[in-house]
Design brief:
This protein folds into 2 domains: 230 residues, no CATH class; 113 residues, no CATH class. Helix content is 58%, strand content 4%. The chain has 16 helices and 6 strands. Strand 3 and strand 4 form a beta hairpin. Helix 15 packs across helix 16. The N and C termini lie far apart (44 Å). Bound molecules: NADPH dihydro-nicotinamide-adenine-dinucleotide phosphate (NDP) and the ligand CC(C)=CCC[C@@H](C)[C@H]1CC=C2C3=C(CC[C@@]21C)[C@@]1(C)CC[C@H](O)C(C)(C)[C@@H]1CC3. Catalyzes the reduction of the C14-unsaturated bond of lanosterol, as part of the metabolic pathway leading to cholesterol biosynthesis. Its main location: membrane. It is a multi-pass membrane protein.
Length: 418
């Protein structure tokens, strides 16, 4: 077993107790949302309409479907890539290599799906299987996290994540002990973060849209908007796949239950909540309102993409003409911090753009129910917590220079508000 030298006290996410509570609460919330979305009253805060028995949750076909999906995405990951990118420098000064072929996987999945559908594949039927599919994905995430935990016990200490190496098994199982678990060149965390869950999310959205067309003759305008916006978001993530290599999930967090469940179950089954809601609760949406919502999504996307690209360009090459004129602060590490452009507006402009998009994804569902706004509420909490975690890390990394940045750019996410 790898020694626990350099291990940290388990303080994030409420320590071991918080981690244990989240491991129960997150799957329970996901099943609650799935049940409530199809109920007549669709009340987010009420009790679920019924408690499903094991026969409603367990289906060997659903498990087989989930495993086939993972197998397909893994095969697409292994195809030759247009580019191989290097990750950030690791503790042992080495850099891992990652294939950049996520967008190619999305296109090939769409082609295979098109072929299947023209041969009579009833994609809409997937919408009837969401409960057993979510159960199978949760089961896979639990077993997978357990295997990852066991694997982490035999790797050298330098391969462990700074946060998930506390010595408390519950906490470490939740946060993830090993930073970049791999078999040969297959990187499990990088693979899961962007492919099965994100592509699965748009697949579920599409199935819900097909089912709506079958029930009502054609998809509603609201369903088109939700599908279009979320496809743009997933397509964008896969197109800019390389950027994920600088997120805290890849650089700092281990791969444990939080990310395995988040990537494989939470993202596809809760991020598709608006489309699930619309299938069972059709909402009228006029063209003028639809145009306003498109504008809100466009503004959010413009800020999100602008901010993320500006930082990535700057981190890759500070003398790139697109960022060379921006004002910066020097830090003791040799790295610089941007203090003008998007990063001079607030300290997390990318979060602001993401939140504006989240609002645009809920608005097509009208204002009669709180349920479709769950994503916006959850995402606000996630980003506020994430911002606090990032802030602490930046303070540790950059010290006085970070204080100076906070003085120059006082707002975190929303100008003049937060
Ligand atoms: N849809 C979803 O469920 C989720 C989406 N996201 C999205 O993922 C994206 C990435 O988010 P995340 O990884 O949390 O964080 P960021 O992309 O904001 O990265 C934070 C890092 O950026 C660097 N940085 C911070 N300020 C500056 C500055 N002024 N100049 C230059 N570099 C700076 C620091 O790292 P360093 O200095 O080491 O480079 C810091 O640690 C966001 O757009 C977010 O909205 C995130 C979570 C969930
Ligand atoms: C509640 C729970 C289970 C928490 C786990 C959190 C994960 C769901 C998220 C952590 C960071 C994520 C990112 C994306 C999806 C959600 C998770 C995995 C992301 C892939 C979405 C698309 C974006 O463009 C992105 C690539 C920037 C983003 C990266 C972070």
């Amino acid at each position: 077993m790898a020694p626990l030298q350099g291990s940290r006290a388990p303080t994030e996410f409420g320590g071991p107790l918080g981690a244990a509570a989240l491991m129960l609460l997150l799957p329970a919330t996901m099943f609650h949302l799935l049940l409530v979305a199809r109920s007549g009253s669709a009340r987010l805060l009420g009790p679920p309409p019924y408690l499903p028995g094991l026969e409603a949750l367990w289906s060997p076909w659903a498990l087989l479907l989930c495993l086939t999906w993972l197998g397909l995405q893994a095969a697409l990951y292994l195809l030759p890539a247009r580019k191989v990118a290097e990750g950030q420098e690791l503790k042992d000064k080495s850099r891992l290599r990652y294939p950049i072929n996520g967008f190619q996987a999305l296109v090939l999945t769409a082609l295979l799906l098109g072929l299947g559908m023209s041969a009579g594949l009833p994609l809409g039927a997937l919408s009837e299987m969401l409960l057993p599919l979510a159960f199978a994905a949760t089961l896979i995430a639990f077993i997978f996290s357990l295997l990852l935990y066991l694997k982490s016990l035999v790797v050298p200490a330098f391969a462990l994540a700074p946060g998930g190496n506390s010595g408390n098994p519950i906490y470490d199982f939740f946060l993830g002990r090993e930073l970049n678990p791999r078999i040969c060149s297959f990187d499990f965390k990088y693979f899961c973060e962007l492919r099965p869950g994100l592509i699965g999310w748009v697949l579920i959205n599409l199935a819900l849209m097909m089912q709506e067309a079958e029930l009502r003759g054609s998809p509603s305008l609201a369903m088109w908007l939700v599908n279009g916006f979320q496809l743009l978001y997933v397509g964008d993530a896969l197109w800019h796949e390389e950027a994920v290599l600088t997120t805290m999930d890849i650089i700092r967090d281990g791969f444990g239950f939080m990310l395995a469940f988040g990537d494989l179950a939470w993202v596809p089954f809760t991020y598709s909540l608006q489309a699930q809601f619309l299938l069972y609760h059709p909402q009228p949406l006029g063209l003028p309102m639809a145009l306003v919502i498109c504008l809100i999504n466009a503004v959010g996307y413009y800020i999100f993409r602008g901010a993320n690209s500006q930082k990535n360009t700057f981190r890759k090459n500070p003398s790139d003409p697109r960022v060379a004129d921006l004002e910066t602060i020097s830090t003791a590490t040799g790295r610089q911090l941007l203090v003008s452009g998007w990063w001079g507006m607030v300290r997390h402009p990318n979060y602001l753009g993401d939140l504006i998009m989240a609002l645009a994804w809920s608005l097509p569902c009208g204002v009669s129910h709180l349920l479709p706004y769950f994503y916006l509420l959850y995402f606000t909490a996630l980003l506020v917590h994430r911002e606090a975690r990032d802030e602490q890390q930046c303070l540790q990394k950059y010290g006085l220079a970070w204080h100076e940045y906070c003085r120059r750019v006082p707002y975190r996410i929303m100008p003049y508000i937060y």
